[in-house]
What does this fold into?
Amino acid sequence: LAGEHGEYSLCWKRDEDAEPFLIGRLDVIGPAAAQHSCTLGAECVIRVAGHLLPDDSVLAISQDGSCPSREPQWPPASCSTPCSGNYDFGVLTTGHDQASYMLCWSTLEYVVAAGSL
It folds into this structure.
């Protein structure tokens, strides 16, 4: 399933001309992709907006442009519990100011791109 995170209504109708009726809801959990920034030598806390972000979710910074990252630039950051969307990487002391990094958000079950840094 691909699409935007959020809450959706599930509707059904018996044929094309029938009125649809609500049969349930679907929660698509996950982050909203966005551009973020951090400064070398300073605390780096990335706030990820999303829908129903689970407490076991992590955010990784990838320099190789792929998710899941084959070589994360720094150890992944866990979400604060309960998950408010804040991922604390601490003070970043390595990296390149002209480099482009990809943010990879994941739970134990899947990994998705969550923007860039």
Summary: The chain is about 0% helix and 45% strand. The two ends are 25 Å apart (CA to CA). The longest strand covers residues 21-28. The CA atoms of residues 11 and 23 lie 5 Å apart.
